[in-house]
Structures are given as C-alpha cells and as structure tokens.
# Entry
Amino acid sequence: MEFLQNFSLKESVAAFMVLFAIIDIFGSVPIILDIKSKTGDVGAVKASLVAFVIFLMFFFAGEPLLLLFGVDISSFAIAGSIVILLLGIEMVLGIELFKHDSPGGGTVVPIAFPLIAGAGSITTILSLKAEYAPINILIALIVNMMFVFLVIRLASAVERILGPSGIHILRKIFGIILLAIAVKLFITNTGIILPA
# Structure
C-alpha cells in the first residue's frame, strides 16, 4: 500500500517536533490549571479527542476546501509560515499577538479549540502536507495527541516538576524552533535558494 510505503521515521520525528512546538502544550499548562480552578475539572480524554477530530477534518478536507477557493498547498504553506513566524516571535519576545478571546470555557472551548487545535496548529497541519508524506504527519499527530492527553491529565504535576521558570524556558526554546521552521517553510515553497 503506497500510503504505508511512504513511512519515514525521520519525517515522522520532524513533523512531530513541528507540531509539538506549535501546539506548545507545556506552555499551556498555566492556562489549563487556571481553567481547572474555575470550572472544577478538565476532561483530558474529551479535550484530546475533540482537538484530534478537528485536526483530522482539516488534514483530510483542508486541501479540497482550499481548491474551492483557488488556493494551492504551496501558497497556503507560505501563508502558514507567516503565522508560524508570528507565533515564534510571540513565544520568544513574550508578547501577545493572538488574542484568546473565544466565548465560553472548559474542556472543549477554549482548551480543545482554540488552545490545542488553534489557527496556528491547523495552519501547520496543512503546511506540513507540502513537506512530508501524509502517513508521517498522521503518526506525528497521534503521538502529539498522546502527549496532550498526558499533560492535561498531569497538569498540576507538570507545573510542579518544571516550575514557572522551566515552562518559561521551554516557551523560548520552542519559539526559536518555530522561527527556524517558518523560514524553512517560506524558502521551500517560494523556491528561494540561499547562498551556501
């Protein structure tokens, strides 16, 4: 089966790292804990499953939807690289460019959407299709959702282990990774060749 034959551990790991950085579940621990304190409980299984379903919808139906508007994957990847660049800047500089002002609260909104499956991560899923084989993106997504589940389930313990400074450092590191990813996506899809 061609779908399975395109499996690559290297691609899966690379896609995992991209999604892990953009979802930034460790950086969301303070928000998850705040919502938990206000609502009493956050359903780790429900939040992970809802986010996963949203990702799958865009993964499988995103391209036909783009074609409906006359946009190809490469163009979307370039637009996505700009969003990823802004997210990276936000994480590195500690500023807020994207407002998290969705109405409601709790497990589905805002944790599953837009905290986990937000504009940046959905854009990234579609952008990755211009770089990696679908099977590798799916594997990376499944493993990421497992991490999301574990972190939500063990949010209080994660905060105690990492501490505020640990979470802060993680955000900075993943912010720099996102900036590099954004540049690579932009260059790959525009055909720009950098001097050696």
